[in-house]
Amino acid sequence: MVIGAESFSTILAPDDRTTSVIFGDGAGAVILRAGEPDELGALQHFDLGSDGSMADLITIRGGGAEQRSSGSPAKPEDGYFRMDGKSVFFAAVRRMAESSRAVLAKTGWGIEDVDRLVAHQANIRIIHAVAGQLGLPPERALMNIERVGNTSAASIPLALADGFACGSLRAGDRVLLTAFGGGATWGSASLVWPALSSELTLPIENATPLLTAH
Hints:
Elements: E1 2-6, H1 17-20, E2 26-34, E3 43-50, E4 58-60, H2 65-68, E5 81-83, H3 85-107, E6 116-119, H4 124-134, H5 145-148, H6 155-166, E7 174-181, E8 185-192, E9 210-213
Parallel strand pairs: 2-9, 6-7
Antiparallel strand pairs: 1-2, 3-8, 4-5, 7-8
Helix pairs in contact: 3-4
């Protein structure tokens, strides 16, 4: 079971409208099992990357080793999440597009083979920009950020759950996942959506897609 959970409400600065109106609390999970590469639900290929030179783009200054070793007491505002929004936008679009292309090359898919793009739900502009960089029609991108906000590590499993529950993800769909986050880190994966029983269509807060790994 792979779980992503966030409680951003505990670290957002109330006066910072660049973050407080975007981020939300959420949790999502995906269950994987051993399987065969040619069966529905099979994960295909992965691409992962990181660049420590961008560590300052997304931070919480207080409470960590850097602050404690500085010899200076933490300021009240150091306990809040901070983000350089403009720089994050450009870095996220570039890295997710590059990573997506790397995964498509490994998988042997052209962009025309991708039925659904499920990107980290950072904001609508980033998702549309990534789709545009790849040459993918924006309507193929699954989005639920307008309803649940940016839930960070929970955003892709929640988007998968939404897509399954509303019928946007169907058995055999070729799906491209991609994400960018603090560190800075990024990654992408390709998979074929499994055949799931309609009995698994639960209220969205409880829906859990099922994938296979090999």
